[in-house]
């Protein structure tokens, strides 16, 4: 697949091999990068497990920022756009939640994932304690709201920050990206491909089709169907997400059952 | 392992996925099992804990610090048999639900060697006195929720129970702390050496009253509610202080919510001659302050500063903070750990490479201008073991020029930098004793040009070769990667 590119790459590789052989002192080392300085990303950084030991989410499961990989889109804008909620959100269940109130966050401040470096244990603990403030509370929501996401049949779970999304659609597309690598085994007659695009579309088909149902556990410990309540209410009460096989979803909601029946 | 080491006594794991099944195997295979420490782990439930409780007759220590446990029921604690009395240390502070309180009380009172007890938030304050009375020999206590309806009888019961713990030296917990209950610990403040108030959302005056009574305090973890004023009092009262950590109460807020600045840290550096370990979150810093701190405390060994807004300059001069951090590394000759923040150029790395000869761990974010920065560190810091870097313009040249250095280190982490996939491959090929792991959620790195930067790079030395258990978004650059480019 990468044959032609690999050939080109080899040329560059050879040059680098030369530099390793030389014992360069700082003054001799030509470190001016060709062209302009590498642009330093301000907002596209992804949270890291091992990034900062006092700090970041301590699991191998990367802080699931599905937004991090939208091809071609500037992450910063992507995030800002999501902070201004869209007037009508269509969920993949075709329900129309009430229009969302805009969150009081200025456009200029885009969240940097994993910064400041605070351990998830601490973040989660503080999130459920009302912080005492001297003056009126401007921002009642915690900065991030990590929930676990599981998919039936997947070997491991993921984590995502619900505050990164403003609508069910955002959430849905983030989930598509996150779990696309698991749909290889689901491909069957579609054929196996390592291209993400086809995995994602297959996952989308699976999620929007009858095979999977997106559910969440709410504060009371009940498993609910995603999409019934307005987005804000959902993020307030969602403790974890589960992409559930439809065959297990019987009894969860009449809508899900109908879908199963109509497709099978 | 169960087959090979049947007499295994201690297992300590950090940031690993542990299943109930594994816990069951541990519980049933190691007859003399004594210590289980699971730090920031996940993947298990209270059922796994039940297996441990029921089977490990000689268990001395069960510490689940900051792990994520699926809390199915608090019943597991009752699975410790009545004949079990060897518990010395229990840390269940991470559990979400209530444990069987009666079982807990009975367990605590029948274990005469119990020295450490860290409860979870769900243990109500009015049950604490009973627990304390059952274990007057306690040295370390983590309370549960430190709040209750304010009632004089509850208060005096609590104060009496605390007073009865003559050996109590370490206090933590204080979730949801109600200020009016803080005085219940006053009777023992003078004997405390370690105090973790970093979950207590109480304001400065209450914090000050408490802290000023702790004349023997060596370690304080606190929220920034303590403010500069509180830190000044701390500096005046706690002359034995060795470690200070100040955490942000509102890290994601845009405006400062508390009056905590660089001044607080300066005060403590002036007043506490033994201060050697600092973790400080704040919103402004100056070169002058860092200079003062460095000169005050040349005995500093761990200095971690997090200025909340990335790339913040010296707020007085608007200059980079190179000189300030330079002063830290220059004066603190035994500095072993350093975390940088604020606006920093390649110059700070020149200082670090020149002076940071004892430095073992360095954390860098949003800093530097070019590969020269990374090169200074890799070529200058003789004792460097762990280096973690995010969002810096460091690329291939410095990394490859210092490839041999990586074998002398424990690990290197780079994320959101400018290291190309091609360079990672070269590194993997050239250094067979290193595992060069590339993490990329957008798909296999070889589906993009060789020159495109990798999301995350993790390099560490190994005698065991590449891992075989990696999730799908991790790739090892090994000797074979050359063969795949045809």
Question: Care to describe what's here?
Answer:
The complex is a heterodimer of chains A (264) and B (486). Chain A is α+β, with helices and mostly antiparallel strands. Chain A has helices at 3-21, 75-83, 120-127, 168-179, 184-187, 196-208, 231-237, 254-263, and strands at 146-151, 158-161, 212-217, 223-225, 240-245. A five-stranded mixed β-sheet of chain A has the order 2-1-5-3-4, with helices on one face. In chain A, helix 4 (168-179) packs across helix 6. Mean pLDDT of chain A is 57; it is low at 1-51, 53-108, 133-141 and 184-196. With 486 residues, chain B is of the alpha/beta class. Helix content of chain B is 30%, strand content 19%. Chain B has a 19-stranded mixed β-sheet. In chain B, strands 3-5 form a two-stranded parallel ribbon. Chain B is globular, with a radius of gyration of 25 Å. Chains A and B meet through helix 1 and helix 3 of A and strand 16, helix 13, strand 17, helix 14 and strand 18 of B.
Quick structural summary:
Chain B: InterPro entries: Leu-rich_rpt, Leu-rich_rpt_Cys-con_subtyp, LRR_dom_sf. Chain A is an alpha+beta fold and 264 residues long.
Fold topology:
The complex is a heterodimer of chains A (264) and B (486).
Chain A: H1 3-21, H2 75-83, H3 120-127, E1 146-151, E2 158-161, H4 168-179, H5 184-187, H6 196-208, E3 212-217, E4 223-225, H7 231-237, E5 240-245, H8 254-263
Parallel strand pairs in A: 1-5
Antiparallel strand pairs in A: 1-2, 3-4, 3-5
Chain B: E1 10-14, H1 20-29, E2 35-39, E3 42-45, H2 46-55, E4 61-63, E5 68-70, E6 89-91, H3 101-110, E7 116-118, H4 128-134, E8 140-142, H5 152-163, E9 170-172, H6 186-189, E10 194-197, H7 204-211, E11 219-223, H8 227-237, E12 243-247, H9 262-271, E13 277-282, H10 287-296, E14 302-307, H11 322-331, E15 337-339, H12 346-355, E16 361-365, H13 371-380, E17 386-390, H14 396-401, H15 403-406, E18 411-415, H16 421-430, E19 434-439, E20 456-461, E21 474-477, H17 481-484
Parallel strand pairs in B: 1-2, 2-4, 3-5, 4-6, 6-7, 7-8, 8-9, 9-10, 10-11, 11-12, 12-13, 13-14, 14-15, 15-16, 16-17, 17-18
Antiparallel strand pairs in B: 18-20, 19-20, 19-21
Helix pairs in contact in B: 1-2, 3-4, 4-5, 7-8, 8-9, 9-10, 10-11, 11-12, 12-13
